[in-house]
Design a protein that fits this description.
globular, single chain, 3-stranded antiparallel β-sheet, 328 residues, 12 helices, mainly alpha
């Protein structure tokens, strides 16, 4: 089980399907490293948006009904408990039984919701989901989002919305966000993981907007390369940074025929397969310690530990490989 599709379908998504909450709906939102499920843990808007995106994307690519069911489980909980009844903005968090907890509505949560709902539209063609996505878009256009991390997620969300609902207005809004990365503050707030994630997301966004940002795409990848440790891990050895390194450097290889980028991507993928994946219980470990073993203090599931980065990686590699096969 080392092909991306096998890891997705046998290791990642079954783990999350087993976390559905039969009492309150939705998914349990915290699992310790020893597999203890914290059933009353609060539920974050970002986590739920990422779960919805993951299952919707998996259903779009693989057409398995259990993945649509997983997407619908997340979507139903979001719509029942996580949205402000006045304007539909998503809350930061709710309790396990769906009561409002932290009702702040930061732009980054709306961006993730837009990303997730536009992916659900891609997977199903559902018009109600499209209207919900457009509502999140309007919320984002009306509130400030001027920090780098938020803009990164606004960019990926606008890119995904453009795939299902292109317009001149959205194209202009997307280009405006793209251009913020050409004028990043110094020093940048981005770590190496954000740099390589931004590199490939910017590449996709520019392509769909009809813009050329190849110089910046390569510059961001070069910045990320400075964050590799001697053992091949990236930065502080979190799982998501390793996943983004595979996608980002695969994109550099494919776009610019850069053989050194392919070597980095392959090395990062092999490291994931040998150290990050929990082949015993499922899912991936959050963080490796300096000796290469998983950090037992880090949860398997939490507000920030989700199926989004690793699902996206496996789908990216599977679909890219499929396209290569289709094109000979």
């Amino acid at each position: 089980m080392t092909s991306p599709q096998d890891i997705l379908t046998q290791n990642i998504l079954p783990y999350w399907l087993a976390l559905r909450d039969p009492e309150h709906g939705g998914f349990y939102s915290q699992v310790r490293s020893d597999e203890t499920v914290i059933q009353d843990a609060p539920r974050g808007g970002i986590l739920y948006a990422r779960i919805l995106w993951s299952f919707a994307a998996a259903y779009r690519v693989l057409h398995r009904p259990e993945y649509l069911a997983g997407a619908n489980t997340a979507k139903a909980f979001i719509e029942a408990h996580m949205l402000d009844p006045d304007d539909g903005a998503a809350y930061w968090s709710v309790t396990a039984d769906g009561q409002p907890l932290d009702t702040t509505r930061p732009a980054v949560v709306q961006a993730y919701m837009l990303y997730a709902y536009s992916e659900y539209v891609r997977a199903t063609g559902d018009d109600d989901a499209l209207q919900r996505a457009l509502s999140f878009y309007r919320l984002l256009q009306s509130c400030p989002h001027d920090d780098e991390d938020t803009n990164l997620h606004v960019m990926e969300a606008y890119t995904n919305l453009y795939r299902v609902c292109p317009s001149a207005e959205l194209q202009s809004a997307l280009i405006t966000v793209i251009d913020t990365f050409a004028h990043r503050p110094s020093p940048t707030r981005f770590n190496a993981g954000h740099c390589i994630e931004c590199s490939w997301l910017l590449s996709e966004a520019a392509e769909i907007a009809g813009e050329n940002r190849d110089t910046l795409v390569r510059q961001l990848a070069q910045e990320a390369m400075q964050g590799f440790n001697a053992d091949g891990t990236l930065d502080d050895r979190e799982w998501w940074k390793q996943a983004e390194a595979v996608i980002g450097f695969t994109n550099i290889f494919r776009r610019f025929d850069d053989e050194s980028a392919r070597v980095i991507a392959d090395r990062s993928w092999q490291l994931i397969c040998s150290r990050y994946i929990d082949f015993t219980h499922g899912e991936w470990f959050w963080l490796l310690q300096s000796d290469g073993t998983p950090d037992p203090s880090k949860d398997k599931v939490s507000f920030w530990k989700c199926p989004y980065h690793n699902t996206r990686l496996c789908l990216y590699l599977s679909t890219k490989w499929h396209n290569q096969q289709q094109n000979g």
